[in-house]
């Protein structure tokens, strides 16, 4: 080039075009913006206001490497190692599932319960089973100023990532993260949340590559019928849930009836919450009025 500086605007358009040519990329312009922003140290929505800023050769080289990974099918959240959930930015590790918008249904349902039963200022005790990046527990702690929370994950790496996210997002002193089997570390809670693995083992191979190749299998694989985690978790709620408490379990869109039945067979009341697409997404488990 003749010494003319490359601008962010030009680079953004070239990058979007390049990603659009890759078949696996559904949102090329948005992905380009997020990846470029991560290199130049701006928020993605600031980038469009800086179209005339010059880009250095060094930045171009780094951006090029990220675009290459994206074009090859790696998800944006994995490339930048972060994903937004409930308006908070969570850092990710290889051992943590990328938080999904559907899981915000868990937060809405749990906050609805808290609002109904005495308000958000109470000193609530929360437990998150299979906490991953800590998204569910940390989002709840951010809304419940006097709550404390225990996050449990089988993966040591996930517990470490969740602990770091909690500290960074200002709830480190009100949370504890441990790895291991939940049955051994948990005590009574007012609110239990969980987004356990719920995909049938045989279905995992058919998932989109962004999920299949990049999300941890431990966070996806629910066993032969996808229900192993619920069969493990629901019986422990007898001990785990305070008599007036409730658990909010994320489910696959077609698992509502069967998980509700598992809860009722264990002596609980069960209610359903839908996600923004209208799918059954969260089963609320409580002791009802017994
Ligand atoms: N909702 C995730 C997906 O669609 C599955 C997460 C899980 O099993 N908890 O891939």
TrEMBL record:
One of its GO terms (molecular function) is nucleic acid binding. It holds the Pfam family MTS. Its EC number is 2.1.1.297. Gene3D superfamilies: DNA helicase RuvA subunit, C-terminal domain, Vaccinia Virus protein VP39. It comes from the Bacteria. Keywords: Methyltransferase, S-adenosyl-L-methionine, Transferase. One of its GO terms (biological process) is methylation. Residues 11-81 form the Release factor glutamine methyltransferase N-terminal domain. Substrate binds at residues 195-198. InterPro entries: DNA_methylase_N6_adenine_CS, HemK-like, N5-glutamine_MTase, PrmC_N, RF_methyltr_PrmC, SAM-dependent_MTases_sf, Small_mtfrase_dom. S-adenosyl-L-methionine binds at residues 130-134, 153, 195. It catalyses: L-glutaminyl-[peptide chain release factor] + S-adenosyl-L-methionine = N(5)-methyl-L-glutaminyl-[peptide chain release factor] + S-adenosyl-L-homocysteine + H(+). PANTHER family: HEMK METHYLTRANSFERASE, MTRF1L RELEASE FACTOR GLUTAMINE METHYLTRANSFERASE. Methylates the class 1 translation termination release factors RF1/PrfA and RF2/PrfB on the glutamine residue of the universally conserved GGQ motif. This is Release factor glutamine methyltransferase. It comes from Kaistia soli DSM 19436.
């Amino acid at each position: 080039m003749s010494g003319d500086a490359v601008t962010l605007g030009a680079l953004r358009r070239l990058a979007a075009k390049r990603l659009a040519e890759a078949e696996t990329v559904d949102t090329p312009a948005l992905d380009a913006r997020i990846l470029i922003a991560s290199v130049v140290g701006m928020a993605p929505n600031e980038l469009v206001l800086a179209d005339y800023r010059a880009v250095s050769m060094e930045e171009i080289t780094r951006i090029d490497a990220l675009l290459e990974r994206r074009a090859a099918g790696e998800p944006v959240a994995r490339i930048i190692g972060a994903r937004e959930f409930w308006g908070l930015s969570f850092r990710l590790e290889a051992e943590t599932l990328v938080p999904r918008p559907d899981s915000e249904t868990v937060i809405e349902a749990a906050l609805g319960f808290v609002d109904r039963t005495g308000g958000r200022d109470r000193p609530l005790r929360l437990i998150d089973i299979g906490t991953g990046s800590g998204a569910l527990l940390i989002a709840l702690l951010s809304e419940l100023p006097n709550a404390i929370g225990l996050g449990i994950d089988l993966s040591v790496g996930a517990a470490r990532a969740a602990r770091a996210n909690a500290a960074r997002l200002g709830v480190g002193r009100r949370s504890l993260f441990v790895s291991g089997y939940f049955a051994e570390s948990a005590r009574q809670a007012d609110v239990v949340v969980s987004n356990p693995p719920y995909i049938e083992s045989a279905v995992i191979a058919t998932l989109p590559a962004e999920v299949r190749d990049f999300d941890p299998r431990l966070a996806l694989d629910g066993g032969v019928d996808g229900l192993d985690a619920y069969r493990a978790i629901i019986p422990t709620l007898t001990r785990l849930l305070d008599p007036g408490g409730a658990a909010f379990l994320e489910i696959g869109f077609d698992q509502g009836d069967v998980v509700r039945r598992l809860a009722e067979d264990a002596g609980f009341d069960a209610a359903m919450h839908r996600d923004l697409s209208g799918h059954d997404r969260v089963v609320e488990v409580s002791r009802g009025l017994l």
